[in-house]
Amino acid sequence: MVQRNTWQRERVRSALAGAPGFVSAQDLHAELRGENTGIGLATVYRALANLAATGEADQLQSPDGEAIYRACASTGHHHHLICRVCGKAVEIQATEVETWAQATAAAHGFTQAEHVVDIFGTCADCTAATSARADA
């Protein structure tokens, strides 16, 4: 099914591209609502799902289980390091993970295995800020 390229979808795409890291549909909707765009939450969800399906956005689950999204310039399979504090995301290559995933699948008789691996932690800037507050 071909999605129409509406102004609402374009505005969601633009807002996602301007986000500093991964954001939830609710957070993106709150930003758009604050700009009085009139774009509904259901439209934001549909647009984000479409962007993820076409590879224009990364979608993953936060440690809390919420779907979060980020505009993605990379194509193909990749992984992320994501800061729990500020949302900063770094795309990483993980050759060891790829090798392990394929070997584990093969050892159990699985073929065409796919996987999702994202690492959540605290980035250097947020760690330093936390340390500075603790020292004060």
TrEMBL record:
Sites where the protein binds Fe cation: 77, 98, 115
Keyword Metal-binding: yes
One Gene Ontology cellular component annotation held by this UniProt entry: cytosol
Any Pfam family matching the protein: FUR
Location in or out of the cell: Cytoplasm
Domain of life assignment: Bacteria
Positions with a binding annotation for Zn(2+): 83, 86, 123, 126
CDD domains: Fur_like
Keyword Phosphoprotein recorded: no
Required cofactor names: Zn(2+); Mn(2+); Fe(2+)
Main location per the UniProt record: cytoplasm
Cofactor note as given: Binds 1 zinc ion per subunit.
Keywords recorded for this protein, A-Z: Cytoplasm, DNA-binding, Iron, Metal-binding, Repressor, Transcription, Transcription regulation, Zinc
InterPro entries recorded: FUR, Fur_C, WH-like_DNA-bd_sf, WH_DNA-bd_sf
GO terms for MF: DNA-binding transcription factor activity; transcription cis-regulatory region binding; zinc ion binding
Biological process per Gene Ontology, one example term: negative regulation of DNA-templated transcription
Family to which this protein belongs: Belongs to the Fur family.
Assembly description: Homodimer.
Name used for this protein in its record: Fur family ferric uptake transcriptional regulator
